[in-house]
Design brief:
Elements (H helix, E strand, L loop, with lengths): L2 H10 L2 H12 L13 H21 L3 H16 L1
Helix pairs in contact: 1-3, 2-3, 3-4
């Protein structure tokens, strides 16, 4: 998971385009835009994180850094 890639997706893509990219990756198709990542799993992680962050920013009025911090907290909890 690379934070600059997630930030770039949040800044350049709409929620709808990210959801479509997620569906494409899950169906083993190429998204309509380039998603950086070493493999499809990392690309999917970046897209999923961007979706979470955009939703979190909208739902909680949070800025990007706060939403990213909340996302990484969730990831750490799920790993433990």
């Amino acid at each position: 998971m690379k934070m600059p890639v997630i930030k770039q997706l949040v800044e350049t893509q709409t929620l709808q385009s990210l959801v479509e990219a997620e569906e494409a990756l899950l169906d083993e198709r190429q998204p309509d835009f380039e998603v950086a990542g070493e493999d499809e799993g990392e690309q999917l992680t970046h897209v999923f994180a961007a979706i979470f962050i955009l939703n979190h920013m909208r739902d909680h009025g949070a800025d990007f850094k706060t939403a990213l911090r909340d996302y990484t907290k969730k990831v750490r909890v799920s790993i433990n």
